[in-house]
Amino acid sequence: xxxxxxxxxxxxxxxxxxxxxxxxxxxxxxxxxxxxxxxxxxxxxxxxxxxxxxxxxxxxxxxxxxxxxxxxxxxxxxxxxxxxxxxxxxxxxxxxxxxxxxxxxxxxxxxxxxxxxxxxxxxxxxxxxxxxxxxxxxxxxxxxxxxxxxxxxxxxxxxxxxxxxxxxxxxxx
Length: 173
What we know:
Low-confidence stretches: 144-169
Number of domains: 1
Helix content: 10-25%
Order of helices and strands: EEEEEEEEEHHHH
Oligomer: single chain
Strand content: 25-35%
Number of strands: 9
């Protein structure tokens, strides 16, 4: 029996210095900024900090300052799954939905309307991570353009490039 994932929504606010303040529905805040190599550096209001990286194939890696890492998987429509198959949390970018659609998706848990949730990997070797990075580079250079930068940086989301690299519907930015 598959358990319904928990939903954690967030909204992003682009700040004057091109960083982003992410507000989560559980009361947490993150301040996020894009590094020159494309990764996202973050810190929150609970003393945590680290770096988020889009590895490829929608897989995200959140590395905490302590060295601990967790993985997420983009689900599309501004959603990213984190955790284990029996204990999933889906972060959902309210900024990208808004209005009635956002309220409906949040109200029904998003999964029913948008399809099943694919769990992220629990652990990847350094070689597996590098293979995902290389595959992403090949896909980006081979099709004449980049992806959406997507992802949830781990328990959060946003990206795009018309507003300094933030504001899209992915969790990564």
